[in-house]
Amino acid sequence: MRNVLAIAEKELSTYFGSPWSYIITAVFLVVGGYGFGFTAVTYMETTVQGFLGWSSFFLLFLGPAMTMRLFAEEEKLGTLEILLTSPVRDVEVVLGKFLASLGMLAVMLVLSLFYPLLLAWFGSPDLGPIASGYLGIFLLGAIFLSIGLFASSLTANQIVAYVVGSVLVLVLWFIGQTAGVLGEKAGAVFRAIAVSTHFPDFGRGMIDTNTILYYVSITVVFLFLTVRSLETRRWR
Fold it and tell me: How far apart are CA 109 and CA 145, in angstroms?
């Protein structure tokens, strides 16, 4: 656990030392703020549905962008080989980098609490859907970050890592849209697989244990694939 925290701390310091992270955070807040302030639902109800909708879609591109350098840059600079030959297990490396990206996402979400605080100042919002909505977007972000981390472990090119990660994320998000052209059984399976199918429930204040387990399971699967991807590098 000490190694995991040390790697996470190092990566977090890199995040906070990079102007790119501040740009991403600013864009995330602007996009979420647009959804919060310029959608009809904000004016009709004291909810953050607009923020959740716009920011969740932006996460499709934000997740791979936040993680594309984590392994690709180290391989390009030649430091990945040094890291893998140090007395640190592959799973510790993966978890450390993942926790760092998850910590950066948490910082963004904390900063975005300005929007529900505005609702609380001017009205009486239902805190249940707001809390569940933030839980949902955090879990959704964890999935996208794990996918981006996996993509970054496959190549030394950050652009390629971003493209691969974005494609995987988009497939997982929009796969449910293909249900209409498939049979009833196959369509039901694809809708169940799509993460976009389950996300709206969080915004309505519905916390389904099965959905949480599903989101966590996808995250774990891609973290496992990332570990296996690193293991193959040891034998190259």
Answer: 14
Tokens of 12: 């977090």
Neighbours of 63 (CB within 10 A): 28
pTM score above 0.70: yes
CB 196 within 8 A of CB 173: yes
Q: What pLDDT is recorded for position 139?
A: 93
pLDDT digits (tens, 9 = 90+) for 197-215: 878 778 777 777 888 999 9
Q: Using the 8-state DSSP alphabet, how is residue 148 labeled? A: H
**Encoded tokens for 41:** 């639902």
pLDDT of residue 164: 93
144 closest CA partner among 79, 218, 63, 82: 63
Question: pLDDT by residue (tens digit) across 112-145?
Answer: 888 778 777 776 766 777 888 889 899 999 999 9
Contact 141, 57 (CB under 8 A): no
Relative orientation angle of helices 158-174 and 195-203, to the nearest 10 degrees: 70
Nearest to 108 by CA among 42, 75, 62: 62
Radius of gyration, alpha carbons of the chain: 19
- What are the CA-CA distances from residue 235 to residues 73, 86, 99, 228, 230 (Å)? 20, 15, 26, 11, 10
Residue 21 CB neighbour total at 10 angstroms: 17
